[in-house]
Amino acid sequence: MATIMTKKIATNIGNAVKKAATNANPNPHMAAASRAIADRIPLVDFLVEIRDARAPSSSGYELLRKLPSSAARPTRIIVMNKADLADPSQSKEWMSQFEQQNCLCYSMNSHNKENVKQFLNFLQAQVRELQRADRSSHTTTVMLVGIPNVGKSALASSLHQIGRISAAEKGKLKHATVSPHPGETKDISSLKIGSHPNIYVLDTPGILPLKTLDVEVCSKLALTGAISDSLVDVKELAGYFLAILNSGDKYKKWEKLCSYDDGKAFMEHKAEHSSGSELVEKPKRQYPTDHTQDFIVRDVRRSLFETISYFEGKLEDDQDLTKLIKSQFIALMKLFRIAGELDGDGFSKVACKLLNLYRTGRLGRYTLDPVSRDTCHLC
Ligand SMILES: Nc1nc2c(ncn2[C@@H]2O[C@H](COP(=O)(O)OP(=O)(O)OP(=O)(O)O)[C@@H](O)[C@H]2O)c(=O)[nH]1
Ligand SMILES: [Mg+2]
């Protein structure tokens, strides 16, 4: 449920990104990389567009839409990467939406060896089919393109590693630079991922024309990490995540993280404030079932659960939601033992930690783009 407040925060973030992008000097690397990628597209056999499964529509690659329709077009495959961070049921719906539009698409996690092996098999089958059709056995080139930070280099490296092992290739293993920060890859690089027939994958720099993007798209991409945090106020970005968390129901599964004593206090509070019609059961002693070893993560989840559950305001009310978000920042500041000003550097430090937890999937799996039946031109 996207509340009006969530939309307002998203609009503020999107406008700030666009303003910063307009005031910044043009990025010569990005312009040169766009030209180099556009020049190569007609020369490759497969174009794999990597998208972020958390934002399947917002993370689309604009550069492809701008290509002249006369340009030779390689076979296009859409990969929804980082599927481990997206809501699984929404990913399923998105996949069927892509399939309905006759897109060749694939959903995966580039950190998962089995997923990468299966994707490599899928690619090899596509290559064999192409070669049967044009009766050749030339070297095949697969170019990975996409906006920054969607996992192009991670996938290129994993494909290279696995492809080399299965082809018993000798020689030095190459690595594409993988980083949590966007814009890390500066040049196109080539990595071998198969022999007989030879297959090469081209890793490319991420391209994102911020000035032409829709404001809401900008805010979603800032949250996923495709846009540098230096262009936004991290407090506002973390507030955006909290607004999404608070207006959904994913936090409810963290109730089991309340220890017996905390759980008892929580249930007593609930009993005190309930209308009296609900039967309040004594909480059973419960333990986390996801075996998380990370106690900080568990404490953050519990703190967020408690702040939302104890909250008595209306989440649909702008001022109430703002109050709740502020109380969550304060609770997390205590939890992380961060000193500093409220609303100032103390909150900024909390925001960075919270964004890191969200972006690594430790605060749940969220899909930011709702599946809409009338989303056209997905591919
Ligand atoms: N959870 C998860 N993280 C991923 C996945 N793929 C990549 N990452 C992480 O996402 C971040 C960005 O990965 P990169 O491979 O550097 O992304 P990129 O698209 O090459 O980025 P640029 O070079 O900036 O365009 C890194 O921290 C990766 O470890 C995935 O499938 N799941
Ligand atoms: Mg890269």
Ordered list of secondary-structure elements with their pairings:
Blueprint (H helix, E strand, L loop, with lengths): L3 H20 L4 H13 L5 E7 L9 H5 L8 E7 L6 H13 L3 E4 L5 H22 L5 E7 L5 H15 L22 E6 L4 E5 L11 H10 L9 H14 L12 H14 L21 H16 L7 H18 L9 H15 L20
Parallel strand pairs: 1-2, 1-4, 2-3, 4-6
Antiparallel strand pairs: 5-6
Helix pairs in contact: 1-7, 1-8, 5-6, 8-11, 8-12, 10-11, 11-12
The structure holds guanosine-5'-triphosphate and magnesium ion.
Guanosine-5'-triphosphate (GTP) binds next to α6.
Structure commentary:
The chain is built from twelve helices and six strands. The chain has 379 residues and is of the alpha/beta class. Helices cover 46% and strands 9% of the residues. A six-stranded mixed beta sheet has the order 3-2-1-4-6-5, sandwiched between helices. The chain has helices spanning 4-23, 28-40, 62-66, 88-100, 113-134, 152-166, 215-224, 234-247, 260-273, 295-310, 318-335, 345-359, and strands spanning 46-52, 75-81, 104-107, 140-146, 189-194, 199-203. α5 packs across α6 (152-166) and α8 packs across α12 (345-359). The chain folds into two domains: 25-210, Rossmann fold (3-Layer(aba) Sandwich); 233-359, no CATH class. The longest helix is centred in the first third of the chain and has 22 residues, at 113-134. The protein binds guanosine-5'-triphosphate (GTP) and magnesium ion. Guanosine-5'-triphosphate is lined by residues 81-82, 84-85, 109-111, 146, 148-154, 178-180, 182-185, 205-206, 361.
